[in-house]
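Q: Here's a chain of 640 amino acids. Please give me its 3D structure as tokens.
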Amino acid sequence: MALETLEFKDEDESVGPFRRRLFFVFSLVALCFLILACRLAWLQIINRDLYVERAEQNRTVTTTSQGSRGLIFDRNGTLLAGNRLSWSLEVTSSQTAEPVEQLFDRLAEIIPITSADRRRYRRLRENFNRYDSVPIRTDLTDEEVAVFAAQRWRFQGLELNQREHRIYPEGAVGSHFLGYVGALSLNDKKRLDAAGDLALYQGEREIGKVGLERSYEKTLHGTPGHEILEVSAGGRPVRTLELEAAQPGSNLTLTIDLNLQRVAEKAMTGKTGSVIAIEPKTGRILAFASLPTYDPNLFPGGIDPESWNYLNTAEEKPLLNRAMRGIYPIGSTYKPFMALAGLELGAVTADYVLNDTGVFQVGNHKFRDVTGSPKGLLSLRKSIAVSSDIYYYWLATQLGVDKIHDFMQQWKFGAKTGIDLVGEQTGILPSRDWKEARFKEPWYVGDTPSLGIGQGYNAFTLLQLAHATATLANRGIIMTPHLVDKVENPVTGESIKVDAEPTGKIPLKDANLDVVIAGMTDVTRTGTARSVFQGAPYSVAGKTGTAQVISIAQDDRWDEKKVSRKHLDHALFIAFAPARNPRIAMAVLVENGGFGARAAAPVAKELMDYWLTGENSLGLPPPKNTPLIQIGRASCRERV
């Protein structure tokens, strides 16, 4: 029995390999289950949210929609920028089964496709990836839509989309302050991404590029909406799971009076330059014109290459916003501000009399009056009326560059005014430090006299000059110039008025202001602009200006036969009216126009006639609250 038990416990040598194989298989199976468990944990626990989202994406489709772009109106409710629905024929290159150009060749057999359309497509395609749809034709007619819809099956990768199309009903009128929308470029997307706003432009094709369209892009654009659809395995929609409507952008009501804008642009017909009119007490911009202008309707949907090439290469530079981006010497329109500086800083008194001999000498250099003739004995008031250069050469040397710089800085010369438009230039208000940094040279005594007549290193924008004129009309109270009067939510009707409170005050003595304004009033009565304003039923405080473009011999300066058109002096005029209680202030610039009294002052006269009396050559109705509505020329003259 013991022997049998021992034999039973003895292990068969053949069992060992079997057991090892069994253990290996068991371990392998356990490892597989462990891997599966890890993978399950990875999918169901660690990355649960990710895969739930992917699963949802497989059974749902999310579409985005953009709300209507906000509308823009003038101060009287006239539509300046609006929207209309139009059909767009778009190409998605990733979905085409043939080269795009070949596809276009076949498409041209049923719908007109011009070479300009092809070039525009190639330019727009650079701003999109191959999965985006890019327009080849916009604003299709109903007949073209019907023709393509009937043969849609022939054109893989082409689709019709109905999109809102930005329109500018007034065409070229006011284009430089309105701006335009254009194709959303890669640079735009980078800028939006950096600002954290790119998600708001999913499915969007256009964005504000310049002007108010750019400056108020966030306000006008609105908030996108979305719809989540449950779809079948074949991609067919089953039901709507979630729907959020897009919110339209807010509407803008401007300070601009469209009819005054029309008058300004009509007065500048055939001229190159700009006009800005401001309501002094509020800073509201009434007219903002830069000539030549352009039609902003060319840009939505993609501008054709021929038009783009012309706008960029034309000698007159129609895309340049001369009102706030052009930088110019402002000539004698600087003299009223110089006169105030002299009075306020004690360099001169109102009673001081200077003998204008026609020449002012510094060292061995002689500075001459632009007219070449002496003006005799002059008080400060008379120096403004007759526009004496000699008086202001002298006054500038009495003040010196440092005092001139510090005083003029208060008026925003050489600085941004704060207008609600992107792209304002600063210009140059010279100082010792500025010249040292710019030219690595000290300030010389001979640099100073020209500052007194708005020449030399002085270079400003017309907006700065208009703003300073409005501040003078407002007796030193600074109002920031602005174009938008209120922002309105089109859904709730709630509107927010733009603040029109003073942003500063230049300390000025009333007596000094009165002397300077009296001198400017004499300009339009007995001085350099008397012929333009003779018989006007309102009083005007103004100042003519003529700014030299190039340095030439003074004996030849005013001989237009010896100077090419592009080298003629710029003509300027500043004014406000009525002189005692101003309702409008303005600055006018006519590039290469010659004398300010001849080229620029008549433009200002047309604007003032319309704004103060309703008189105009366009047959426009008078503006609201016109103080002087005259029948013929029989109205009463305002007392001054």
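Q: Can you summarize the key feature?
A: Residues 345 and 561 are 43 Å apart (CA to CA).
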